[in-house]
Structure formats: structure tokens, C-alpha cells
Design brief:
The strands form three sheets. This protein has a six-stranded mixed sheet with strand order 7-6-5-8-9-10, sandwiched between helices. Strands 2-3-11 form a three-stranded antiparallel sheet. A two-stranded antiparallel ribbon has the order 1-4. Helices cover 33% and strands 24% of the residues. It is of the alpha/beta class. Strand 6 and strand 7 form a beta hairpin. It binds zinc ion (ZN).
């Protein structure tokens, strides 16, 4: 019986809070639950999160950023550092709500010889110096690779990572003994088609997310060619 965990008021609070955060993400259209979804890998799952939609509602993301800021309010912070557009929007909201009034800087993600890398623009380098207290912010943490690179970047510049906050963390992620504060901590079960319990029950398979990737192209425009 799981009643022991449920009697713990702190545990109950965490559960309720996570439900609220999931509901907020659902309202942005980013989070899908109670479905039977085909993933690009061919596996089936019951839940899905579309990373690019997470930050589309300014008031929602401001509220979620404020929860992260409140968690880290007791730690003086000079800089909030992130990388990627979604994490940058969230990090702005965290910095706005943090009592230390930290500045916001961001790295650029890229690859070098097939390996992922994060580069801090030269204009930001004077902001992370020996002793600078840095709060790292991510939107979704799955493998933890980006955060590990950000930690290495801060430490190489002599800065000190005061914490790591994110919207969503897969429960399996560990960051070299560093605790990650996340509003949602959740990993989806995924199943091979042949052993999927939803297929066995005859639940229709939602192929929308895979189809969308295959058939839709991003909208783009370019400036006209110069006339000869
Ligand atoms: Zn299935």
C-alpha cells in the first residue's frame, strides 16, 4: 500500500504541485497525456512533450520561472546562464523574479566533430569571472549533456554553480552528484510496438507527431536575389 508516502504532507505537496505544473504545460499545448502515441523512434508511449511549445504563453512561463526563482531565492546569484531559445525565455523569467537581480547570459549550442559543444559569446565572458555565482536554467533535461557542458564552462571561467533549475527532468538523469530542482520530474514509459500494452487493449495509435515531422515543413522566407 502506498498510503505511507501519501500521509507525508511534504510528499503530498510535491505531488499536487507537479500536477499543477503539468496542467499548465498542458494548457500551452506542449504536454500530451493519456494517449497512445507513436514516437519517431517507432516506440509507443502514453505521454509526450513538445519542447518548442513550452514557452509560448508568457504569463504561464513567468509563473513557472517565479517558482524556480523562489526555490533559489536564498542563494545569492550574480548570473543566470542557459542555452537554447526555450531555456533563455525561462531564464529571463527566473532572473526577473530572483531577489539578487542577476543578469542573464546565454551560450550557443553547436557541434564540433560530431560532439556537442556550448560557446559563450565573448561579450558575456567578463560577466562570469572567478567567484561569480551562477544559476543554470534549462527547459527540458533528458540526457543532462547540455547542463554538464554548462557546468564545465562556468568552472573553467572560475565561476561557481549555485544551482540547477529546470521545468522538466527525466527521473533517470543524474548530474555528477549535483541536485537538479525541477517543476516536473517524470520519465515516460516507452514500449516496442510488439509488446505495447495499449496496442494489446486495442487503443487507436496517435501518429500525429510522427506524421507532422514527416509531412510538414517549417515556414521560411528569404530575401530576394539582388537584381543584376
Ligand atoms: Zn502501442
Amino acid at each position: 500500500m502506498s498510503a505511507v508516502g501519501r500521509k507525508d504532507p511534504a510528499g503530498m505537496d510535491a505531488e499536487v504541485r507537479e500536477k499543477i505544473h503539468l496542467e499548465i504545460l498542458k494548457r500551452t499545448g506542449a504536454y500530451h497525456a493519456n494517449d497512445h502515441i507513436l514516437l519517431p523512434s517507432g516506440q509507443h508511449t502514453t505521454e509526450y512533450i513538445e519542447k518548442t511549445l513550452v514557452t509560448t504563453e508568457p504569463s504561464f512561463i513567468e509563473g513557472l520561472g517565479a517558482v524556480i526563482a523562489k526555490h533559489f531565492a536564498q542563494w545569492p546569484t550574480d548570473v543566470v546562464l542557459s542555452t537554447g531559445p526555450g531555456a533563455l525565455i525561462l531564464s529571463h523569467c527566473v532572473a526577473r523574479a530572483h531577489p539578487s537581480r542577476p543578469v542573464v547570459v546565454y551560450g550557443a549550442k553547436g557541434t564540433s566533430s560530431g560532439r556537442r559543444r556550448v560557446t559563450l559569446p565573448v561579450e558575456f565572458q567578463r560577466l562570469i569571472r572567478p567567484g561569480t555565482k551562477v544559476l543554470l536554467v534549462e527547459d527540458l533535461v533528458s540526457s543532462g549533456t547540455t547542463l554538464t557542458l554548462l557546468i564545465n564552462l562556468v568552472e573553467r571561467l572560475g565561476g561557481h554553480v549555485v544551482g540547477v533549475g529546470c521545468l522538466w527532468r527525466r527521473t533517470s538523469v543524474e548530474l555528477a552528484g549535483r541536485s537538479v530542482f525541477s517543476l516536473v520530474s517524470r520519465d515516460f514509459p516507452t514500449y516496442p510496438a510488439e509488446s505495447c500494452p495499449l496496442c494489446k487493449k486495442g487503443v487507436p495509435l496517435n501518429q500525429e507527431f510522427v506524421r507532422r515531422r514527416q509531412t510538414r515543413r517549417p515556414s521560411s522566407v528569404e530575401e530576394p536575389k539582388p537584381a543584376d
